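Problem: given the chain below (375 residues), write out its structure.
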Amino acid sequence: MRSNKKGLSHVDWAISLGIFLLYLMWFFVFVKPQFIADESPTQLLESTRESLVENLQWVVEKRPLFVFSNITGEDEGVIVDFPYDLSKFAFSDNRYFTLDEGRLLFLADLTEGANLFWIVSSTKNYSLPSIIEDITATESYTTTANFRADFSSGLLDEIYFNNESKLNSFELYINDIAIDRTDTSFVNSSILGGYKIYTENVEHKCYVLAENSKVYCFVNLGKEKPHDMTIKAELAEFPNYYSNNLDQGNINYGSEGCEGFSSRYVNFYGDDGLSFIFNKDADIEFCYNGGLSFSATVRLNRNVSYIIVAHNGSYSRILDYKLPYYDYEWGIKEEVKGIDTDKAQQLANLSYFELKQSLGYPIAQELKIYFEEEK
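Solution.
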């Protein structure tokens, strides 16, 4: 019997030891994390630096826009597709712009060859600069220096240049049917007036930009591609016309006649002129019989753009404006990191205790932060 009790006491002892060791193990598991050795000065400095950077960091995205121009000119209108879903952005040089239905519109001094512009974006709000341009834009007309374009229900109606009428009627047909002008809209800013017509088959949009005697027009196709688009206009009695070396000459208003050819460009001129420029071939015809009637038909198997340019001098003044007179390309996005001065000011406004808390810095330790501007 003694030997049995002795065996039981050994078993009880083993069980008790096991329970003690198990308790000890859980004690270290739960309690050890609460006893952390003090960080070394180097570790403390590094963790504080990381917290400070996290609190102050500002990330700016930069996107380059390359504009390859055939011309050199001041305050040229530039209109490009804007493929980015950005609500907060600006030009790096604080240039004024307008964003309208996926198009970025701005004025630029272009030089022949490559021109580089930077778009910057971040979480910050960007305000447009103050700008004073010689432009007045309303739903019925837009005027710039020596130029006025009148519109009726979203469609061009008349053009005046140097205080004289150069175009006194304008009509637009889709598949030989006058475009429906029931659904129209108007947009304006400090640099432009914009006139739009929306139909089931096409969207027709024209812009007049400050400092430019041009009407920029874009025709976007709907789901059902129409057959063709025809524009018709009555023009001033220009004495000459030029399209190319074969299709050019004087216009004899003493007789009746018509001229027709396929081209992307035609210019009617005398002391000044009016040009029609398309981004694809158009069937052009003009007739003279006590006046000058113009028409151009373009196949709409893809989106089309055209511009109407009023200018001084002969056709040679604007030959380089044949579309596209500039091309463009968006470059690869870059990221630039720096200090947000607004966030730095917010930290500076915190109390000493709040600053330590925000950086995860020990309350008992002294803390000083210095900023040094990089030169």
